[in-house]
Amino acid sequence: MDETHLYNLTFIGAGNVATHLSQALSQHHCCIRQVFSRTEESARELAGRLHAAFTTRLDEIDAGSDLYIVSIKDSALNEVLPALTRRNPDALFVHTAGSVPMSIWNGLARRHGVIYPMQTFSKQRDVDFTTTPFFIEANSEEDTRLLMQLAQRLSEKVYEASSEQRKYLHISAVFACNFANHMYAVCHHLLSEHGLPFESMLPLIEETTRKIHYLTPEEAQTGPARRNDCNIMEDHLHMLESEPELAEIYRNISRNIRAYAEKTKKSNP
Amino acid sequence: MDETHLYNLTFIGAGNVATHLSQALSQHHCCIRQVFSRTEESARELAGRLHAAFTTRLDEIDAGSDLYIVSIKDSALNEVLPALTRRNPDALFVHTAGSVPMSIWNGLARRHGVIYPMQTFSKQRDVDFTTTPFFIEANSEEDTRLLMQLAQRLSEKVYEASSEQRKYLHISAVFACNFANHMYAVCHHLLSEHGLPFESMLPLIEETTRKIHYLTPEEAQTGPARRNDCNIMEDHLHMLESEPELAEIYRNISRNIRAYAEKTKKSNP
Question: CATH homologous superfamily for B167-267?
């Protein structure tokens, strides 16, 4: 069995991930036979782009595909998966969610796995899949290899990851992306309260991001907490007195920066 | 009086900021006459690059410059400034520190101000001054204009900012850069604990940074806290049980993301 067995695909879902992923696979020698979505308009639109069939009914899902890729919201999985897997007991079934364990397929599909593209997808922007990391899991070595080969058609960065690891990928992404973005939001808030333009901060933010391409974040750390500059930290906490939630965040993160700096010092005396 | 009055400069300090800034000004039709530094090696090296004189003695500082730019660590200012300003009562004196108020010059120099280039400087990397924001303050309109014209030789982004505003620029930069970088450090820590490569996170971090070039950080916010996905947030807090400081940071930032989302909803009903 080789990669050509994954030639015929059906997509379950027509949202952001399904749209970007199905189009990319279609451009890389995969035949998308059908798109399923509960929303007829979405199903028709995506199927049109892919020159594929579409359906809104679970009992009309194509029974002849080799691989079924499920990209629907987590809360719909329980309803869709049993009906889907009944359609083709021999096929390979995968979902694309960071936070959903592979075990969701247990008892439903003999061959199953996960293809998790770790990127933030939005309708307005094209996705550069060549640099998007894909995390692969399957319940057999053979299907793991098949899915890795499939992902490698799109991306240079394909990794194997267990469900447990994927959970940690997800929480790590919350810190590095969602929480980092909130630091920008706090910055935006403080600047606009004092008549200062947020765009003035962009060069510094860009340089901060560039640095971690050649230093670890611990090595790249600068600022009053890293230097243990207590005078400036006290001034800053004083400035945040009217916003106790921000003062609390300032205190907690500064304390944690100190703890990381001490840890690094100990391991590199 | 016009910009040519700032042709002759003396630099006080030979650290990262002084090195990058003096070289850039020297390339933009300024004559750096002299470099002062307590460390003879630093003074000689920078002066050599600038084809300038150098001294390590306060009483040998050039008395004929039009502008003196002070880039030394905050703790050395009290000692250096009185001796410096005595050398040339008619000149313009500025410092380059984000956190030091302009009032530090009061009683010392008739004409004074601040040129604050807001960027992270490191010896290993060249600085792109054309996109670096400069924040200018002076104690007269005339000198404000002079300093703005000088900064505009280097940068497209020159702003006026009071000492009070500069304090808020600095604390904002702590959030957007130092604290955002710590979110990367936490991410790095969680990933390496589970055998996952940090480099896999870089495309997502880059996209997070790119997004705030065309959306406000509040508009760009995604993730479980923004969606108020309580199940995932509870799972995550459970995963962080063995690291209570991280759980605390997770809780505080998530709560603050919710608060910002509610605020945005109220102002755009």
Answer: ProC-like, C-terminal domain (1.10.1040.20)
Does domain B3-161 sit in CATH 3.40.50.720?
Answer: yes
Q: Which residue from B174, B203, B226 is facing A223, i.e. has the nearest CB?
A: B174
Please, how many CA atoms are within 13 Å of residue A196, restricted to the half-sphere of its CB?
32
**CB B208 to CB A133 under 8 A?**
no
Contact B80, B133 (CB under 8 A): no
pLDDT over 90, % of chain B:
77
Residue B95 has pLDDT above 90, yes or no: yes
Q: How far is A92 from chain B (nearest CA, A)?
A: 26
CB–CB contact B220 A182 (8 Å): no
Task: Report the pLDDT value the prediction gives residue B269, as an integer from 0 to 100.
Answer: 46
Contact between B217 and A171 using a beta-carbon 8 Å cutoff:
no
How big is chain B by its Cα radius of gyration, in Å? 23
Q: Are A173 and A144 in contact (CB under 8 A)?
A: no
Q: In terms of CATH architecture, what is A166-267?
A: Orthogonal Bundle (1.10)
Distance from CA of A17 to the nearest CA of B (A): 15
Q: Minimal CA–CA distance to A34: which of A50, A16, A58, A15?
A: A50
Helix (H) or strand (E) holding A9: strand A8-12
Closest partner residue to A252 (CB to CB) among B181, B183, B248 is B248
Domain spans, chain A: 3-161, 166-267
**Are the beta carbons of B208 and A245 separated by less than 8 Å?**
no
